[in-house]
Amino acid sequence: MTLPLRSTRSLFTAAALLVAGAARICAQEPAAFTPRAGEIVTITDEALRLKKSAPAGWNRGTPLPGTQAAGPGKAPAPGCYVPGSLALSQGETRFVLGRDFLVDEAWGTTGLTDDTRIDPAQPVTAAYRVALRRLDALIETADGRRAVREGVSALTDPTPPVLRTGERLLGCYFVDYRAAAGAAEFFRHELPWPNIATASTPGRIQRTLAKLQSGAPLTIVFWGDSVTVGGDASREKNRFADRVVAALRAQFPRSPFTPSVVAVGGSTSAQWLKPDAPATEPRRWQRVADAAPDLVIVEFVNDSSLPSASHAARYDDLAARLRALGAEVIFVAPHFTYPERMGFGQNLRAPDGRDYVSFLRLFADRHRYALADVSGLWGQFHRTGAPYLVLLKNGINHPNDQGHAMMAAEILKCFSLPTLPSH
After folding, report:
1. Is residue 268 helix, strand or coil?
2. Least crowded by CB within 10 Å, which of 121, 142, 162, 386?
3. What is the DSSP string of 351-365?
4. Distance between alpha carbon 207 and the CA centroid of its chain, in Å?
5. Residue 307 phi/psi, 5° resolution?
């Protein structure tokens, strides 16, 4: 988060208290343990310039910086803003919600009313509150006791405390935004995520594997949207495409293959397949064709928002174009996005019900195309002891580094490669 000096001090103070709290262990069974309420950070004296546009969702209006997860996307995390907490002023003038400014309280975005007294050319001073998430771990200690250790809060993707020598993770309490004391949901740890079985399909990219094994030249294109671009991976080498490339180079050092990322944030496959796209349009099929790929790895989580009736014709077209190029394909059944978009409500253990994912699985199976079942992995992530939400760096649709690693692992299954190089 980008905060002014005084706000930063208050956040550092809160973080120090949280770190101290992380060392506290409560030796109680899960039924008797009452997790503390979710932390709330107060941000004060923040200089803010408001856009004239009214707030609506994550991408209209002016986002409050304290609601934006760290990462390239800078999108506000849904649900973290504490409703009713925003106060705006200029000098001695205190502005009034509804008269001078508006707030989308689900997203923490703000904007000006038509008859506002705020001059958009001048900064205002903002104060507001932001809720955080936390994972508290139920552990079995080295001497066989059961204890709970608090995690350190984070805006979107908290992690449980690090286990000590001889300890075993039994599960985690997920303390969501503004959760009251005792309102955390417990997720039992059954297995680590690399051990989760999915429907990814090895053995369907035989020409690609033959070239890798023989050392013949090979071109791989990663084609997709903002997640393929890198989403909110902390570094380029941590995005799923680079992880796949690193693993393949480690496994096939003799192969002179050429990787290429052809992707545009916010795009759908339909936009790329439009006929007669001008050369200035970055979302055009010719960019894929010009790369002369031997293998295309297709990731479009944004296709989940397209009408169900459009999938068949679009993917028939897409597959025909790939055949004309002589390219094999791996389709990525996409990761999860935030619960409201998934239709989950409060159920963070729900299976993927997106029509697009169901279609893609059937389409790949019918035509024997390779499928990287990222959806299946994310849908079972709760078995690791935490909800899938902790994999979303922007809280909406961009995976964090662990989420990218999981995507790469499923793609590598199509190459019959179960492991990833460490970064």
Report:
1. coil
2. 121
3. PP--HHHHHHHHHHH
4. 32
5. -60, 140
Whether the CB-CB separation of 63 and 130 falls below 8 Å is answered with no
> Coil, strand or helix: which one is 233?
coil
Strands 124-131 and 25-26: unpaired
Burial class (CB in 10 A: 0-12, 13-18, 19+), 167: middle
Percentage of the chain exceeding pLDDT 70:
90
Instruction: Tokens for 423, please give them.
Output: 């970064």
Rounded Cα distance between 52 and 49, Å, is: 10
Q: At what angle do helices 240-251 and 401-413 cross, to 10 degrees?
A: 50
* Inter-residue contact 271 to 282 (CB < 8 Å): no
pLDDT (0 to 100) of residue 416: 86
Q: How many CA atoms lie within 13 A of 379 on its CB side?
A: 17
The pLDDT assigned to 73 comes to 62
Residues 6+ apart with CB under 8 A from 307: none
CA distances from 414 to 183, 198, 200 (A): 41, 12, 7
Distance of alpha carbon 308 from alpha carbon 266, whole angstroms: 19
- Helix, strand and coil content of the chain, in percent to the nearest 5, comes to 30, 20, 45
Entry pTM? 0.90
- The per-residue pLDDT for 30 is 56
Which pLDDT tens digit goes with each residue over 52-74?
878 877 778 899 999 998 766 67
Q: What is the DSSP letter of 301?
A: G
CA distance 255 to 393: 34
Dist CA 261 CA 121 (whole Å): 40
229-251 pLDDT, tens digit each: 999 999 999 999 999 999 999 99
Regarding beta strands 328-333 and 295-299, do their DSSP bridges make them parallel or antiparallel, or are they unpaired? parallel
**Residue 301, Cα to own-chain centre: how many angstroms?**
11
Spans of the chain, pLDDT less than 70:
1-32, 71-73, 417-423
pLDDT value, residue 119: 87
Cβ distance 139 to 167 under 8 Å? yes
DSSP string, 157-204: ---PPPPPTT-EEEEEEEE-TTPPTT-PEEEE--S-GGG------TTS
- Domain residue ranges in the chain: 40-131, 194-413
Residue 281 is encoded by which pair of tokens?
């349009």
CATH number corresponding to 194-413:
3.40.50.1110
Paired tokens of 270: 């339909």
Q: Taking Cα atoms as reference points, which of 206, 247, 257, 253 lies closest to residue 419?
A: 247
